[in-house]
Amino acid sequence: MNFIALKMLFGDRAKFIGIVVGLTFASLLITQQSAIFAGIMTRTFSFLLDVGLPDIWVVDPRVKYIDDIKPLDDDAYLQVRGVEGVQWAVPLYKGSLAVRTKDGTYQSCTVVGLDDETLMGGPAMMVSGDLSYLRRSGAVIVDQTGAEGKLAHLLPGGKSIPLKVGAEIEINENEAVVVGICKVSQTFQNVPVIYMTYSAATLFSPGQRLLLSFVCVKAKPGQDLHSLCQRIERATGLRAYTRNEFKVLTFLYYLEYTGMPINFLTAVALGFLVGIAISGQTFYNFTLDNLRYFGTLKAMGASNRMLLRMILLQAMVVGGIGYGLGVGAATVWGMYMGAHTQLAFRLPWHLLVVSAVAVLVICLSSAALSIRKVMKLEPAVVFRS
Fold first, then answer.
1. Contact between residue 354 and residue 32 where contact means Cβ atoms under 8 Å apart
2. Domains contained in the chain, number
3. Which residues contact residue 162 at a Cβ distance below 8 angstroms, ignoring those fewer than 6 apart?
């Protein structure tokens, strides 16, 4: 009976292709938009991913997300160091400063000031140069995307020369020398990232009285992070988050206070509805065209349960093909665009499960109408017609 069901399905090539195309489009749109949304939301806390060593981030109690910088007292990291269970605690500066490039244009950049002694929080992947070069006077390291893009030297005619090691730039009207090019995760604001020492940040940001943005903490082995956070908060009056808690805090802020979720959910819902509309209608018409075969099988003794199994098999086959083609097309498109553009595209296995469930619901919804029609079918009516 399974062979007969598949022969019926593949025999009507036009409707088979129509159902698969509808499911492919639905799977493609659901997977693509979900992956872009996941990629954008990941960029909101990409800084936490790049600075991977700290277990705990200590911030002002009023901070709502990673980029909501509220400076701390300069000696706050010393207070944190005195808390039981802390292995080390270092200061970290993060702010936005104007950079003047060689051609005279100004570009807002994210500046990260690292602890002078340890350089903790520096980029993990250097394209050229070395992280230790930051200890030189006026030295900075620039991320590769910014060096090749917004900080590149524009020439007449639209061509540009990427920023290279040895180039001079002006940060907040102070001269700086590029001593390295690094790779970092794309940020949500999509602006160049510049690394320097914490002491250099105090020189490049003379207008700010307080510069300490975060205190990065490493716990001693065996310490319970949540208990350590509570001890830090009691001792300093500041707020301490584990890395995952800070990521969730940032994620929830953008989820609540931006319009991104509703925009992407609308696109996902559209793909779902289009899939139901196209696939459901086509599958129902396919069943109507094959009612005579179902009626014949019923007259030969096939039970409603057997016919139900045949329809579900047909629905699962087209669903599997449509799902595979849609997810495959979305993945190839995302990989290509991610390699050649700054598109945010992230496809974890959770989204593949979400897409599979959505396609399954579409298939079951499409099959439901057909099943109802077949269950009420009387063989005598078919033979009379």
1. no
2. 2
3. 147, 148, 152
Q: Check whether residue 201 and residue 272 sit in a common domain.
A: no
Write down the pLDDT at residue 324: 93
Same domain, 84 and 219: yes
Average pLDDT of the residues in 311-336 = 90
224 and 266 housed in the same domain: no
Q: Is residue 291 part of a domain?
A: yes
Give 336-368 pLDDT, tens digit per residue.
Answer: 988 777 788 889 899 999 889 988 888 888 777
DSSP 186: P
- Say if CB 71 and CB 208 are below 8 A apart: yes
164 and 278 both lie in a single domain: no
Q: Tens digits of per-residue pLDDT, 189-226?
A: 788 999 999 999 888 886 677 889 999 999 999 999 99
Q: What is the 8-class DSSP label of residue 117?
A: T
Do 206 and 283 belong together in one domain?
Answer: no
179, 142: one domain = yes
Q: Any idea which residue has 């090539």 for tokens?
A: 13
Closest-CA residue to 274 (of 359, 368, 371):
359
Read off the pLDDT band of 57 (50, 70, 90): very high
- Domain co-membership, 82 together with 230: yes
The C-alpha atoms of residue 6 and residue 297 are separated, in whole angstroms, by: 15
